[in-house]
Structure formats: structure tokens, C-alpha cells
Amino acid sequence: GVHGQFGPLFSKNAFARPNIEFMFGEVTDIIAINLEGIYRIPSTRDAKWQYYFGAGPAFNFVNKSFNDTTEDFSFSDFTFDAALNILMGMQNKNTFVEFKATAWGEPTIRFIIGYSF
Fold first, then answer.
1. Which of 5, 98, 99, 102 could form a disulfide with 112 if both were Cys (CB 3.0 to 4.6 A apart)?
2. Which tens digits make up the pLDDT trace of 49-79?
3. What is the spatial distance between Cα 11 and Cα 18, in angstroms, rounded to a whole number?
């Protein structure tokens, strides 16, 4: 997926971080539009990693199927599901590691490793 980070907002450690995730598996495919906010835990100036936690609404399009995956891709096969994401992670200058869980919707747990440009 891709994400953007905007801020700081209201505090030097609070940021808006909208993102889009694409997850394709053997049984379940998910396209998620997330409007999350994060709060960075204050650390010493020389710390290499910054820890953060956050939450926000998720708008998920979910397709569960045991059928042959060679068929044409169609959005009509997806169902809409609104949910709440809860996340925590750590980031250094360009790399981040994140654990994200979805509540009040299609339950998913994700472990994400990413690079920020």
C-alpha cells in the first residue's frame, strides 16, 4: 500500500496518516482506505527508532472466495465493510515496522514492514 503523513497537528507528536492497502491472498482479497492518526511517543534526541500508536476508521472492500483465481478481476465481487483500525509501530528515518488490527468489521491482523521516500 501507500501512505502519506501530514502534521504535526495539535501537538508536535500527533500526525494524520491516511493510507490505502492492497491485500491479495488465496482466500481473501482486501482493498482498504484508512484515515488513521498516529501519536509518536516522545524519545531522546539521539534515539534511532521512534515508537508510535494510533487508530482511525477503515473503509474495506472484501472478497472471500474459494473459486479459481484466474477469473477476471471485478469490483462487483467485493463487499463493503466499515471498521476501526488500531495500530502500533516504530520508525526510523526511512523504515517502519507496524502491527495493525481491525475491530468492528471484518477482523484482520497485519504485520507491515515498509520504506518511506
1. 98
2. 999 999 999 998 888 877 655 566 566 778 8
3. 18
